[in-house]
Structure formats: structure tokens, C-alpha cells
Amino acid sequence: MEYKELIKEALKYRENAYVPYSDFKVGAAVLMDDGKIYGGCNVENASYGATNCAERTAIFRAVAEGNKNLKAIAIVGDMATHTSPCGICRQVISEFANRDTDIILIKNENDYKVKKLEDILPGAFTKEDLAK
Ligand code: THU
């Protein structure tokens, strides 16, 4: 699968990152099962714990628009490494992903790795665990 457009969108949203504390910009873009794309960036706060990561910003934007099925998510951080989603974001990705969802860790437009949820969050706690 070609993810050029999704990667471009993650890079574009990275520019909007609000990072006065870490100076670490992150961009993300999600591709939903209906073909729609939503971008996001990290939004920091003087109360550091109130910071929202780029992945969650993008996912929450999609869900708020009524879009819940994640086909792919692309993430770009400092562009020196293939930035990997944090633990909280892995958990949020798991809520809306399925076993086939592609998780794209971008270094730059031409260098990215594609992972699956099972690679990055094996044994995830999911809604099935809540079934009585
Ligand atoms: N960050 C993300 O946006 N996504 C991640 O998965 C890792 C961390 C942000 C949070 C904070 O604004 C900055 O990167 C440094 O941790």
C-alpha cells in the first residue's frame, strides 16, 4: 500500500506542533476505513501532564467526526529517528485499530517502517477484556 499522501499530511501537521517546553515537534495522520484522512500534532501545556500527543490529537479528531475505524496511522517526530508512539498512544491506537491496521513510523518522506499493533503492543488490554 502506498502511503505517500498520509505521510505528507503527518509532515504538514508536524509544523503546527505547539511545543514551547520540549521543542520536540510530532505530527500524525490517520487514514480511516472510508478513505478520510485527519492530521494532528502534539499540543503541550504549562501543566506538562495536560499535553496531548500528535497521535491522539489525530485519532480524537477522526472520532469526533464520527470516524472510528483506523486503517493506518503515520507518525513523524524529530526526523532523526523513526519516532515510535508512546505507551498511552499505543493504548489509544489499540481502541480503534484492528490486526491489519498499518502503523507507519516515519523518519522522512522516503524512509519509513510499517508495523502492526501486535508488534508494538502485544497482549493489549481491549474491550474484550471487559466482557463479563
Ligand atoms: N509526543 C507525541 O506527540 N507522540 C508520542 O508518541 C511521543 C511523544 C510528544 C509529547 C511531547 O509534546 C513531546 O513529544 C515530548 O515528549
Mind explaining what this structure looks like?
This is Cytidine deaminase. It catalyses: cytidine + H2O + H(+) = uridine + NH4(+); 2'-deoxycytidine + H2O + H(+) = 2'-deoxyuridine + NH4(+). The structure is a single chain. The chain is α+β, with helices and mostly antiparallel strands. The chain has one domain (about 5-130): Cytidine Deaminase, domain 2. The protein has five helices and five strands; from the N terminus they run H-E-E-H-E-H-E-E-H-H. It has helices at about 5-15, 55-65, 85-95, 115-120, 125-130; strands at about 25-30, 35-40, 70-75, 100-110, 110-115. A five-stranded mixed β-sheet has the order 2-1-3-4-5. Helix 3 links the parallel strand 3 and strand 4 (about 100-110). The chain is globular and about 45 Å long. The termini are far apart. The relative contact order is 0.18. The model has no long low-confidence stretch (mean pLDDT about 95). The structure holds tetrahydrodeoxyuridine. Tetrahydrodeoxyuridine (THU) binds near residues 22, 24, 26, 54 and 55.
Write a concise keyword list for the protein shown above.
132 residues, Cytidine Deaminase, domain 2, 5-stranded mixed β-sheet, 5 helices, binds tetrahydrodeoxyuridine, Cyt/Deoxycyt_deaminase, Cytidine deaminase, zinc ion binding
What is the secondary structure topology, with strand pairs?
Layout: H1 4-14, E1 27-32, E2 37-41, H2 54-64, E3 70-76, H3 87-96, E4 102-108, E5 111-115, H4 117-120, H5 127-130
Residues 19, 22, 24, 26, 42, 44, 51, 53-55, 85-86, 89 line the site of tetrahydrodeoxyuridine.
